[in-house]
Amino acid sequence: MRTLILGAAAAAAGLVSWNAATTDLSAQTLEEEMRPTAGKYKADLQLVSLDMPDAPPEIANMMGSMMNREFDYCLSAEDVEEGYRSVMSRAEQGDCTYQRFNASGGTIDAEMTCNADGREMRMVMTGTGSPTSSDVTMTMTGDMGMGPGSMTMRIVQERVSDC
Hints:
The chain is an alpha+beta fold. It has a domain at about 1-45 and about 70-105 and about 130-163. The chain is about 15% helix and about 45% strand. The chain is built from three helices and seven strands. The relative contact order is 0.29.
């Protein structure tokens, strides 16, 4: 469960360890203003909601303390070469496929399904993006390792300097 959820959080954060196996980037419209700029970013990740009916109540507290955090990360020129679609899928764990992806006109709207460790998760990502910032809310639904559930996270990112 932790790997799948952390992988989803990393996708929202735009981290850069490539593991997605079936992501086709050819369908993305690469508008220049919708490509993140390489550099160092400050990110604020917040757990908005968690619904895991079959999990012990203390799981929500553990998830909140694990997810609610600020961190910095760097994106290289190579990382941002193919736009937001590529950046958002790089840290995903397992075999992931986009059902839809649109990053244009300052908005991001995507849906991805990932299979990891025999479990399937559906992720819907909506928000705003520019070359130097993004504000994305991601809702995950599916088998979270303790039965069906859902989780919503929000990540706000801003470029702060060169790496």
